[in-house]
């Protein structure tokens, strides 16, 4: 696909205009960070330079040939007993000059009590969500990459079930000599095949994101800045019960005046990764929207911050991340990445492809 056509598709206004921000869409679990790397990066990043397979879930253009035969398994302990796991595998097809990846994510909400309207216990049930994703990425000219991801979504809450299809489309520009990489992605374009209630279908959590990363030349440090929901300027939420000058317009809470700087920074997620020697990575990020919406008024603590550590060697990547949503409430994430072609003789299927930033 010529790059100019991909840019037109990404910026096509109909795709963004038909979608809405959080609280008015379904399948919110699509925004859960699938891996420790994503958690450590603040949940949003479309330009980071690295060899972690999960980066392609944020932007399919970040899927690279160096991830050939990588197998990744992740597990997250979320809140209120919620657990979710993710597995992904990548393969580079040399004849097609294309890198493919597939992944599965399962979210379980534990066992819940089933009651009727009068409160009588009828039994128990276990709600769950499931996403299957297939990505493909190719190089264009010397410094450009483009990629597409397709998702099949299925959700089951007792007798309420829903399924849907979604697509991610992204591009990336990388200048390895100067250490720059930029990315642009449109996520979760699509709709429901079947709704929970047969009466009306709901929109998906669409997002248009853009970001840039810079690897410093004389310091083992990589800096990233990512903007999300760039198609909508005001993404603030204000509780009318707690704040003055707040009005409700079309179901959204809107401040009558002020707060422009705060609103701008709610679009940003800032991240930094520091390499300790050859094998250890330390990652930190700050998500301003998360801090402003979830932190307690007088006890903000580390709300909005996330930290991660990774041990990366030729045959193994181990990662752990922790993200704070409120002062005393954080999630933990563990993951392992195995380049299978480094572990076993797979013949032509496992031709070794080393990492090239």
Topology of this protein?
Layout lengths: L2 H9 L1 H5 L18 H5 L14 H4 L11 E8 L5 E11 L4 E11 L3 E4 L5 E5 L2 E13 L3 E14 L2 E16 L4 E15 L12 E9 L5 E7 L18 E4 L2 E4 L4 H6 L2 E9 L3 E8 H7 L10 E9 L2 E11 L2 E11 H4 L14
Antiparallel strand pairs: 1-2, 1-18, 2-3, 3-6, 4-5, 6-7, 7-8, 8-9, 9-10, 10-11, 11-14, 12-13, 14-15, 15-16, 16-17, 17-18
Low-confidence stretches: 1-20
- Beta fraction: over 45%
Backbone shape: globular
Report the major sheet: 14 strands, antiparallel, barrel
Total E-strand runs: 18
Protein name: Type IX secretion system protein PorQ
Task: Describe the structure in your own words.
By secondary structure, this protein is mostly beta strands. It is 11% helix and 47% strand. The chain has helices spanning 3-11, 13-17, 36-40, 55-58, 260-265, 288-294, 340-343, and strands at 70-77, 83-93, 98-108, 112-115, 121-125, 128-140, 144-157, 160-175, 180-194, 207-215, 221-227, 246-249, 252-255, 268-276, 280-287, 305-313, 316-326, 329-339. The strands form three sheets. Strands 1-2-3-6-7-8-9-10-11-14-15-16-17-18 form a 14-stranded antiparallel β-barrel. Strands 4-5 form a two-stranded antiparallel sheet. Strands 12-13 form a two-stranded antiparallel ribbon. It starts with a helix and ends in a 14-residue tail after the last helix. Residues 1-20 have low confidence and may be disordered. This is Type IX secretion system protein PorQ.
